[in-house]
Amino acid sequence: MLTTISQIGKHVGEEVRLGVWLFNKRSSGKIQFLQLRDGTGFIQGVLVKQEVAPKVWEAAKALTQESSLYVRGVVREDERSKSGYELTVTDIEPIHIAEEYPITKKEHGVEFLMDHRHLWIRSMRQQAILSIRSAVIQAVYEFFKERGFYKVDPPILTPTSAEGTTTLFHTQYFDEEAYLSQSGQLYMEAAAMALGRVFSFGPTFRAEKSKTRRHLIEFWMIEPEMAFVDHEENLRIQEDFVSYIVQYVLKNCQLELKRLNRDTAKLENVKAPFPRITYTEAIEMLQKDGHEIQWGEDFGAPHETAIAEKFDKPVFITHYPASIKAFYMKPDPVNPDVVLCADLIAPEGYGEIIGGSQRIDDLELMQKRYEEHNLNPQAYQWYLDLRKYGSVPHSGFGLGLERTVGWICGTEHVRETIPFPRLLNRLYP
Ligand code: 4AD
Ligand code: MG
């Protein structure tokens, strides 16, 4: 039976057998230090020449970087090691001796690493990020399960756009034109009218010509949609959701956060409620600080960062002008020039992680929006039906998984937060 490195603490003083890769090796002539990994963690194996059979010593010497092997050894507690344990190696069975590994200890450029992404993900840093990504995914499912939401899967191939036509990926659907989904929202609204409270979690696609540290072409989005929920309650669910995810990662991923040198004090503080400002207040704030931005213009990354710097938690910016937001957002009854929406801006310059709103539930207003936005009434006919048969106030939002993981991990670029990033000019590997 194989043990895993993550479980090794239960076997102190015992002999265990592990299936591992060698990611680094050092030798003093009489002792070999093998840096081993198995996906669940990292551990150092120590071989003392005088204490092992010559065959075992030679087998260890022949191991190259990224060779695979079964290793047998006795687990020791070791305060100096990050994992807290060390393995006194007693036997080695090489499985495959790796060819000369392209990723070495020297610094590599980003393009080189991206070309070798299939290997780069084996590194300690990437393992930490991908394991935190996995924990965030777990947290998402647990949060909604605890609250009785249904998981619903909207289609990926769609005849319409949800978030404007400029970033659509076109494809052929037999004789019809189709697009890859930018957002499952419109379908989730239909699902909310059937099931009440629902969430989706899937890949979304945006043909965005942006080459920034926040943009991916293919990214994963969590989209809850809730019947009988207004703007206010929507915000409360969002702040609870984001707090839950961050606290979940703090509880379950201490080792990984340490490996990433993440300042966790900043994350500890992420607890609901979050501060809220209106779009108009944000514009005034920026103007006072000398930014050249006028009411009615959308925020760029520098604006979002400048606003985020004023708060030590994520901040909601609410009530944007209707003119710069999506067609489905409900106007504020007090001032119909603005809509009942919010973007949630992460601290430390990570930008917008959530976009959400209350939706228009009035048939006539929705029809008017179709005309203003030149939406093909035939293609969107079914969406109007939701306003014809038992329309109710409802709200929802979309959380970008990669931006959230990037913020929690403190990565400089979202490309590290997804196993195989699709970026402008990159479809390989
Ligand atoms: O603000 P967005 O465009 O909102 C929607 O798509 C709504 N239909 C969601 C809803 O209400 N159901 O996108 C939501 C989030 C953003 O806040 C951001 O975190 C992420 O998705 N996002 C991206 N992440 C990485 N790369 C991109 N190109 C992204 N575009 C949006
Ligand atoms: Mg948005």
Structure explained in plain terms:
The protein has 429 residues and is α+β, with helices and mostly antiparallel strands. 30% of the residues lie in helices and 27% in strands. It folds into two domains: 92 residues, Nucleic acid-binding proteins (OB fold (Dihydrolipoamide Acetyltransferase, E2P), Beta Barrel); 301 residues, BirA Bifunctional Protein, domain 2 (2-Layer Sandwich), CATH 3.30.930. It has 13 helices and 18 strands. A hairpin with a 7-residue loop joins β4 and β5. It is elongated and about 85 Å long. The model has no long low-confidence stretch (mean pLDDT 97). It is an enzyme of class 6 (ligase).
Instruction: Classify the beta-strand content into a percent band.
Output: 25-35%
CATH class of the largest domain: Alpha Beta
- End-to-end C-alpha gap: 34 Å
What is the radius of gyration computed over CA atoms, rounded to a whole number of angstroms? 26 Å
Features of this protein?
13 helices, BirA Bifunctional Protein, domain 2, single chain, 2 domains, OB fold (Dihydrolipoamide Acetyltransferase, E2P), binds magnesium ion, alpha+beta, five-stranded mixed beta barrel, 429 residues, 18 strands, eight-stranded mixed sheet, binds 4-amino-1,4-dioxobutan-2-aminium adenosine-5'-monophosphate
